[in-house]
Amino acid sequence: MSRCKLLREGDRNTKYFHTLATIRRRRNLILTVKKDDITLTEPTQVRKAFVQHFKQMYASQETVLFDLTSLGLHKLSTAESSKLEEPVTLEEVKEALLSCDVSKAPGYDGFNINCLKHVWQVIGEEFS
Q: % helix / strand / coil in the chain, to the nearest 5?
C-alpha cells in the first residue's frame, strides 16, 4: 500500500511527501563522529573533523617513480608495435569468441558467449 501511495502522492507538495523528506533527512543526518577515541557532538567540531579527514585523504602525496627497465619486460620491435595498430579481422574476433567460456557475458547487453556462438552466422558480419 505504501508503494501505491508513493506513486500517487510521491512528488506532489503533500504532507506525505514532506514526511518522507523529513524521515530521509533524519536518517542521513550525522550528529556524532568518533575521532581518535573521542566522540564529537558539537556540529562545528563534526564539520571540522570531516573537512580535516577529507583534506588529509586528498592531500597530494609524494609519488615514488618506478624504473620499469629493471622488471625485465620484453620491448616490442617496430614490426610488433605496428601490428598493434592494424584493424582487427573477423577471423580474429571469431577465434577470440570461440575461445571464451560459454557462461561469460561480454558486455552490458547481457548476451552470454553461448548465445553469441549460437547466432554467429547471423550477427558475425556486424562485428567487423
A: 55, 5, 40
Please check the confidence at residue 97 and state whether its pLDDT lies above 60.
yes
DSSP 8-state secondary structure symbol assigned to residue 12: S
Q: Do residues 48 and 42 touch, judged by C-beta distance below 8 A?
A: no
Judge contact between 113 and 100, C-beta under 8 A. yes
Residue 6 pLDDT grade (very low, low, confident, very high; cuts 50, 70, 90): low
**Coil, helix or strand at residue 18:** helix
Compute the distance between CA of residue 80 and CA of residue 13 in angstroms, rounded to an integer.
65
CB 105 within 8 A of CB 112: yes
Domain boundaries along the sequence of the chain: 2-57, 83-127
What global pTM score does this model have?
Answer: 0.35
Confidence of residue 107 (pLDDT cuts 50, 70, 90): low
**Closest CA relative to residue 126, chosen from 74, 90, 87:** 90
